[in-house]
Amino acid sequence: MKTTLFTTAAVLALTTGIAQAQLVIEPGSDDRINWASLDEFAAAHPDLEGQSFNILGPWLGGDQELFMSVLAYFNEVTGAEAQYSGSDSFEQQIVIDSEAGSPPDVAVFPQPGLAADLAAKGFLRPLGDDTAQWLRENYAAGESWAELGTYEGPEGEEHLYAFPYKADVKSLVWYVPENFEDAGYGIPETYEELKALTEQIAEEGETPWCIGLGSGGATGWPATDWVEDLMLRTATPEQYDQWVTNEMPFNDPVVVNAIEEFGWFAKNPDFVSGGTGAVTSTDFRESPAGLFEFPPSCYMHRQASFIPTFFPEGTEVGQDADFFYLPAPESGDLGQPVLGGGTMFAVLSDNPAALAFIDFLKTPAAHEIWMAQQGFLTPHTGANPEAYGDETVRRMGQILLDATVFRFDASDLMPGAIGAGAFWTGMIDFVGGSSAQEVADQIQDTWASLN
Amino acid sequence: MEGMAGQKSSLAWAVNLAAFLLVLLWTIPTLGLFVSSFRDRDQISTSGWWQSFSGSEQTGFVRSGTADDQVQQDGVYVIEGSVVEGSQELSAWGTGARQPAEFQPGDTTEIDDGIQLTVTEEGTYRMTSAEPFELSRGERIFTTTISPPEFTTENYGRVLTAGGLGRAFMNTMTVTIPATVIPILIAAFAAYALAWMQFPGRALLTAAVVGLLVVPLQVALIPLLRLHNDLGIGKGYIGIWLAHTGFGLPLAVYLLRNYMVGLPREIIESARVDGATDFQIFRRIILPLSFPALASFAIFQFLWVWNDLLVATVFLGNTREQLVMTGLLRELMGSRGGEWEILATSAFISIAVPLLVFFAMQKYLVRGLLAGSVKGG
Amino acid sequence: MELFWLAISTIAIGVFGCVAWFWGSNWILDKIYPPRGDRAGDNIRRANQIRPWLFLGPAIVFLTMYLVYPVLDSLWRSLFNSDGAQFVGADNYLWLLGDDKFQESMLNNMLWLLVVPALSTLFGLLAAQLTDRIKWGNIGKSLIFMPMAISFVGAGVIWKFIYEYRAAGETQIGLLNWIVTQFGGEPQIWLTLPGWNNFFLMIVLVWIQTGFAMVILSAALRGIPEETIEAAILDGASPLQVFFKIKVPQIMGTIAVVWTTITIVVLKVFDIVFVMTNGQWGTQVLANLMYDWMFRGTPDYGRGSAIAIVLMILVTPIMVWNIWNARKEVR
């Protein structure tokens, strides 16, 4: 039966062919979008007609469709043909492809560390000082964005190699507003209040937090985000930067302190749903579900802006669930630190259309078209915030634009063996019972052993 | 023999029972996946698949109407509606998240000053107030409901209607069939040489084949893709056939050689005496006799190529035109891969063809061929 | 439809190319050294010296290009540092000796080697024997074989529904914890239980590989000449005796093949560990450790290659045993 169904569908799909990417918004129709910027871009690149190039990235499923909807406009205005393909083993594939000499023309890096490595091996093309200058001028906190894409080339001199496009905000705490109202909890304005609220909820016999570190092969990464966020709330941005480059060792008291802060939340069985044992084993995709159980298994969940995808079906963000900014301490002058991430576009071939594509990403329209749909945040100050599809995303975008201190996900900036290895496993060990000092010493040892 | 009948039937019973238990043990995990492929994501993450056949108790909430929905009846303001859907049965309800089952159906409670809420056994609610309502957002009514077992074919619908599935199916077939047949052909000849031909270094070569079985695929990817690029093959069907042939060969040669070594010496000797060349012996005697082994290996190689994603993405690429089934199914699951219902469904759709192959091949695995030829030879 | 014909013709070209080589090269050989005429004996002898290499030729070319060359490549790379620019000699190997994760992986791999091949072969033999004797044997076989047909990612999900953990008091969606709680026990986080978690991972591989063992062993069991079995039954041997004294000795060679193959699969076990624990909680194995160093974040191909070389060296005892066996077969 299944086989018949299958063959029928196969034949059907074969005869109807693959649907072509459509322009999701009729050009010129939505006045929130800067259509003129697209035309200017097309006018500046008149010779792309018929050129083709391919883009390799980590986006699949919904993200892939959304990105391809933006790509369709590039193809439309230039007459070029840009092809995107996504891979869940992007990191492996980009290494194999570039080492073997058949790289894609453009690659979308989710982790700057890997891009830096490939730049050092000479696989990436410098994007030019103009583009670096453009980033400084047109992105909020532009200097730090430009730095994120600037790496040492094969000769050791620094160039801008990767262009940030699409950002994530990580310093968010998700909650169910009505559960807060029913219980009489207020939104904490300072880090101290957040800790007081945590204690208050626990004293009332409820569980304040849902934390899940599970992620199959990447188990442990949600904890690194926690530690980074808390690092920004217990140490200066300068110390954070030194930590990222190992100028300040991983087992420095400052870092150990931030890990212990995380332990204050995650290692107290009264503070986390299911007890500490559940923290390491619960999948991060399933951990927010506790917010939506009745009675609630927890009241708060710290996770980046993408997490609503994993809320139960029918959950309306803004009504059934909402977020607040993970607040900064009242004491001290750490400002309003925001932790975030971003994907980086790099060019790997000499294809002129590929280089032109980076210019396309500078147009406000390239940002606004995705903003108007979903799941996209941008620090592009020239993009119209009105274009955001809904109020919630606009508020996230505002956090990004308002940050007094903006720092990137440290684990993405550290060498892979640390940021995508020892740091992850270390956090699992830490929650599993090791002390912060032990774990930090071990990570530092691994770091020291890298040549 | 007649006296042994009783003993025989009890033995048959024992064999049947033991086989049944073994099969059951091996099937239960897969059964879980099969059942899950007919459930939606919320169901999968809230109850075990084995519980899906009985009615399930669920706690959730329904929002009441807002001030816009109120009507005035007999001098009071009323908002009415239902808290259940379809054939759900209400067993308890409440108004606070912490006590979602505070009240029984039929109870009435006062939620705010002067606002009364009643939820009946049929699942209808009635909220009354002397003053006009000022609700801009519906009041949450928490319900504990018992739903009858519910299954959906939506997952299958979603996967089977995915754009490009037909194309991906053809691509997979184009990759799989040559990548199964070519290594068998090459391996069969090599296996015969290693088993029945005399030449120096035979034992060493056999051992080398075993040694090559252990080469991890990951170390081979970069050098081989570079080789393909240097040779001008690049990424494409030729490249992926060659790669699968290379990776599948050691197992094929090893399995087939060991099978062929076990074939009766007399047949081959007598053929040689009759003046048959090695090529004739191979084609007329060895190949037919080795059918069970050839079929077994064909099944494994087919499966391995069919389920492979890594070799396909590296050697074929994964643009729309080149995408294989596994790649397409992976795309459906999304970047963060939490969609277990799609995964479960995909697993069953992609298992259909290999199982069909297994059934088709099974008749070649029977003893008749071998026993018959031995007697005939 | 165009695509369909393209697919068919490419398949045909691929397969025919292969057939053409074997048929054509033998034909040419027979033309050069015709096995008849006055020099027939001499010709046959010469042709027989060349013919093995015609038979082996394509296999040797493929094995050399696709397996030997990458092995040499990684051997070479294992002597270099992370970006391949600097020759570091045996540094990567020395580093391995002192690395905790490497030691953990070696120990775990040994554990896997002891458990999985034995259990898979045993269950495979049992399944083959039992399903050969019953009416619904083919269906039974297909069901036991099914895990082999499911991709590793699918297998990961299947076992998630078995091992999944939910806190005590919540609805368990993992079968194992549900059973445990039904009997009043505490739910366990199976995949993080030190020591035991390795066995929970091994069960998955046994579950998959039993189908392989069953298919191969079943073919061998059916290949046993009926006369020997009939003779034993006439001599009054019990079914158990027939199985252990007549059948098992006759398929000992095949059992060894199955054992060896599964041992090698275990040696490079990767997917299960990668999908289910990624080597955390003390479940690291060599192949996954190698993957981590080769492709994770900033790759260190030197260290990754060194681990690969160690992994390949571990197969030596099996190779030696096979040489010894092959020599014995030369009769």
From TrEMBL, chain A:
Keywords of this entry: Signal, Transport
UniProt protein name: ABC transporter substrate-binding protein
Secretion signal span: 1-21
Compartments (UniProt record): Periplasm
Residue spans crossing the bilayer: none
The keyword Zinc is annotated on this UniProt entry: no
Keyword Transmembrane in record: no
Family to which the UniProt record says this protein belongs: Belongs to the bacterial solute-binding protein 1 family.
Pfam families assigned to the protein according to its UniProt record, in alphabetical order: SBP_bac_1
Main localization (coarse): periplasm
Species of the source: Paracoccus rhizosphaerae
From TrEMBL, chain B:
UniProt keywords, alphabetically: Cell membrane, Membrane, Transmembrane, Transmembrane helix, Transport
Segments crossing the lipid bilayer: 12-35, 175-196, 203-225, 237-256, 285-306, 342-361
SUPFAM superfamilies for the chain: MetI-like
Ranges for domain ABC transmembrane type-1: 169-361
Subcellular compartments: Cell membrane
Pfam families in the cross-refs: BPD_transp_1
Listed CDD domains: TM_PBP2
Membrane association type: Multi-pass membrane protein
Family: Belongs to the binding-protein-dependent transport system permease family.
PANTHER family: ABC TRANSPORTER PERMEASE PROTEIN MG189-RELATED-RELATED, OSMOPROTECTIVE COMPOUNDS UPTAKE PERMEASE PROTEIN GGTD
Identification of the protein by name: Carbohydrate ABC transporter permease
Species annotation: Paracoccus rhizosphaerae
TrEMBL record, chain C:
Domain ABC transmembrane type-1: 106-322
Name assigned to this protein: Carbohydrate ABC transporter permease
Cytoplasm among keywords: no
Membrane topology classification: Multi-pass membrane protein
Main location: membrane
CDD domains, alphabetized: TM_PBP2
Stretches that traverse the bilayer: 6-29, 50-69, 110-131, 143-162, 199-221, 255-281, 301-324
Any single Pfam family the record assigns to this protein: BPD_transp_1
Compartments where found: Cell membrane
Similarity comment: family membership: Belongs to the binding-protein-dependent transport system permease family.
Source species: Paracoccus rhizosphaerae
Keyword Transmembrane helix: yes
Keyword line: Cell membrane, Membrane, Transmembrane, Transmembrane helix, Transport
